[in-house]
Design a protein that fits this description.
The protein has 1385 residues and is mainly beta. 9% of the residues lie in helices and 41% in strands.
Amino acid sequence: MRKKSNALLALLLTGAMTVTSVSPAFAAEEFSADAEVQNVLDIQDVDEEESDADVSDVQDQADLGEAEDVDDVFTSGEEPSDPDTGDASFGLTDGNTEAYVQDDLLLAASSEEKYQDGTYTPESFTFQGGSGKVTITCPKVTITRGKVTATVVFSSSSYNKLVVDGEEYYPVSGTEYTGSVFQVPAVLNQDMEITGTTVAMTAAHDITYTIHIKLNVPMVTPAPDRLADGTYQAAVKADSGFPAEACTLLVKDGEIDAVVTLKNGDYDRLYVGDALDAVNEKDDKLIAYRPSEDGTKHIFWPLAVDKLDTLFQVAARKTDKTWTDHYVKILSSSVTKVSDEVQAPDQAAEAAKFLYRNYVDDMISTTGGVTKDGNTYHVAYYSSDKRVVSGINLKRPDAKKYYKSGWFFSDWSIFKSTVKQQPAKSQTYNLDTSKRTQEQQVTATLKLYDPSVEDAAINDNSAQPLAEYTYKLVLAAKPDTCQVTFRAVNSKTGEVIPEAQITVTNNTTKEEVTGTEGIYQLKSGQKYTVQAQSEGYIAAGTKGDAVAKQTSFTAAFDETVDLSLTAEADSKHNVTFKIVDAEGKEVPDAVLTVTGETPAEDGSYTLWDNCTYFYRVTAEGYQVVRSKFIKPLEDQEVVVTLTALKNYQASIKIRAKSGHLEVVNPKVLSVTYKKNGETFTVEPSEDGTYPMVETVAYTYTFAADNYQSATANWTAAGTEGPVELEGVLSKETAKALLEDAITTAKELSDEMTEGDGAGQWAAGSKKTLDEAIQVAEEVYTKENAADDDYKNAKDALQSVVSGLSQNENAESINITVFVNKNPGEAPVKMAMNVTADDASKVTPTDSKRKDNYNKSSDLEKRATVIDALVDLHKELFGEEYIANPTQYLMCGSRGAGTGFLLGQKSYKNFVGFRVNGKYVASDPRMCRLKEGDVLSVFSATKVENPAYLQFEQQETRVNQNEEFTLTLTGDSYYMDKDISRTVGKNEFTPAEGYDITLVNAETGEEVTGEAKTDAQGKVSFKIGTSGTYVVKTVTNENVESIVLPYAQIQVKEKAPVILENGTYLVKVINNNKMFNVINNSCVLKVENGKMTAEISLHGKGYDYMYAGIKEEAAAAGEAAWSHYYEKEIAVNNGDKVEMGPWYTYSLAVSALDQEITFSVRNIRDGVWFDRRLTFLTEGIQKINIPQPTPTVTPTPTVEPTAAPQPTAVPQPTEAPKSVTVAAKKLTVNTSTMYLKVKKSDTIGVIVAPSNTTDKVTYKSSKKSVATVDKNGKVTAKKAGKAVITVKAGKLTKKVAVIVGKYAKKVTKLKFAKKSMTLKKGSMQFLKVTVKPKKATTNLKWKSSNTKVVTVDKNGKVTAKKAGTAWITVRGDGKKASIKIKVKSK
């Protein structure tokens, strides 16, 4: 396998990247490529032997995560191979490819200035450390794409290694310098630590030095964040495999689309993204072309451009349908505006692109027998299945969606008279086969028109087409005869059997046809019977037939036909069967049968060659193998592997059907199954579960004190282990129903008040009801009462209640409503007054459903859920609901729930309601509401079993920047195929693994929980901006259907810190590495509440600062700007103290502990940039300014005026000194992360030493592709590539994130070693080889003994105590394990 050298990579990204001349793409053919610049290097391909060795499980912390390459990061126009094989032909595989492209991605995506590329000589260079015998110099600094590389030279030639930022570097040769020469990454104008290894002594020895390179480098201004709307010309920089000749940018609302002309026709499709995603996209998602006027070039549009000067990936498809990857960049320096209008391709250009996409690159006909050769279509007389091609269908676009069209032919006489000579008519073009006595050639032209064009104008060819293309049709003549060669061949060898007898008989005349040496002249269209036989042979695939035959052979075209015979010696085979279990052990007492065959005494079978035989295997404790077949071609042993039956421990949970009484004392009466006609009983285990075996059909009977018994069936299947079966009771006992009626009547009596007010009853109602209750109780307590007695007593009591209800005044109550109006939306809180007759005031317009909202008589005067829902739908949908109520809210049959709710069909979206958080019933007409109840009405994200979520803290108040915790709980449902029979479990448990985002209701600012909800359902927040926050999103990658919960968080503004007059030292946090505040602190002066900061900077690149954003600064004018002045401040640089002077600026500060935007102006070009600073009250120190002590004079003698004394230097008051521990090593768990869109994963990090005070930060180079939070959680947004920069102090690591639209599953996991040893207290990342390399599955890690070794979700293991444990990693059903042994220190 051949791989590209580093020289080629450099060529692709630098000199050899083509810079396209600037011209409008729509007239690209009028412009030349004279401006094309291409440096040609002499590149020697190097043969490298591909290594398939496994990656080491654990790497040194300094190197961890940097070894793995990304094979497809850059390709140079080579076609892709199998994406899972990592074949080098898919892309450059040189070890530096990934880092090179990552750097370019990172720099291109940055919105800040970058160092200008070039080679520089440092202004000064100093070093500290060592014995002084060896000197170090830095003769030059090279900057490539903003990356700084220093040439470091030791005067001694004995240095063989240099360590910088945890990475090892080795001497380079062939330079002009003497000594040990290294080329290492560097920082400018700051101290940096390096460690050199010298072999000058008897043993290798490490010496640490501190070096300082002083160099002021010009800066590169970044591309503008936004272009004004209009049309622009631009230059394209791309690899040489992407021959861009012209580029036009179309900008609308800040969005940039490119129209790119390629100077040849090698590619027919483009895709913004990589080839792996492009190959899976539908054609209408790909970018098509139209040709130039001369047909030599292809013009593509639109290519979405996120940002100028940003490298983005474009996949290109060759005309042979293979894809290649390319990298492209639009150069901002070349952009020239040509119009304030957006000059998009016109309708004719769009039509031409549509025509070429669908009718030139693709077939115009799918008729059998029609083949394509360029723009010529050949129509055979017979299709491949020997049918006459009597007509052809020609494709045309849908006139309603796209264009009108017309097919025009140079000669319409080739068709039957039934074909209308109307080009606009869609029809089958039936051919006149009587004229096909000789070849016919015609042209067919497809023309596309605007949809408004009349058919008549198309038919008379007077309409002007938008685009057209002409094809050539060649119709083959009908053959009179055809020449067919028949051969008898040996089915095993394929050799012709010369002595075989072949006969051919005309099926119509029954006459035998004579042939010569197996060649026959046959009449086209005629059917024949062909037979072949030979002594010592049988017909192949038969059970001894002597003759091989085809009884209905149709002669249509010249061909060779083989009839297979099998030698009798090869016609039978001895077949034995071996029955084994999953471990390969033979299964005793297995029973095998082969349909229609009898085995020999040894159990073997003699079977005919190539015949199909079905077999069946049964064995106790194993699944039955049935309907399997073999077609033996030789003697063979058939190994049949049996699968052991799974075992289950079934618990049976008994509940009542929706709308029925709660069960009392539920119990399982029996569990049985049948075998060979006999019934067997299953006894429960000690834990109350029932042992069951796979495939066995069980019947279980259950009951409750207040229910009649019921039965249910379950055939054991599914994942082995514990299962929960359900028993639903629906027939209460008559006595239980009477008891419920009495209880309900007593509750009514207790709350009943008599009077004329809302919800009150007529005088005497309570007495009448109590008397009826007493009569019913007498029946209930009567001994030996029959079911009919209970039933009659219940009916009588309910009749009294119903009669009394007629005189009840309609009830009016106040409730709270939470409504999730649309799937995925958080609920809105509403206060509502509900009256018992609200539902009756709305009459459905559908006559079939006019009684849809009617309640039962006993609830007519009571406020119910249906009343509240009617009021809610009026509020949400207004007049639209009143006009057509049942299209928004429709009940089903009595007790069955709702068919429509919130305007949504219940079987399409899971819609429902709950009262006080609990499921009460499906039918809103049967659910009573009471004063103060909380009604939740919701729409889940999917119809599948939803997680109904609620917070324990629904409304809370917190202070700004104060950490608080929310606790999330969830309930699920007993699902039913009939959605109206689905009921809630009312078993709320902690909801673990949810990501929660809150949003400021006024500003839209979003705040995400610090982590997923934990095992207790808890998640913490800290919000820095005051306001009212509500739920925005709640997601869980393992839960598809969710009902979002309600929460309202009132964040109170923290009282501002007011400093008394004086001078202070304040810590400063800044957000930009190019903006270094001296000592990360400043002097803050306070006078009468006004604060002024003196900010001193390391660099000298800015002449002005302004307290505000860059746009405000530019508008304010120079008088409002703060010009720098020079000030001496002590800065510790190792053993040396630097005094500056430093550029210092005086600016007003509006607030403490809040991020404030300042802007700075670049000295070189006067461009303003935004910088954000935070001035902290934490650790603030007031500076004492001592006053001179007055002189005490013993007598009032006049003395000469004393000479002025210098003011004392301000000294800070004594404060506790904080200890700073710098990070020495930074390790990440991977250098490349593969994610599917919308999925997340976390970057694992180890920082040494463990007590470092340096915080780990993360930054994404392209947030539109992937974002990263403060915990390293990366979330994929859209297909593409981004680079995550991980920093700890001065240490930096980069992780490439490659996002695709499609998931790639794990097919194999493997550790290179079976075991490893760790010291107690140590931490390492485990490295597992994953195939395919681009698998997007998040791996799951687990330790067998967490007291010995723990492992986190990133594979980071921590050795806890001496002992042994196994670490197992799983993904997509695959797993691998490694043994970890921990030793004491």
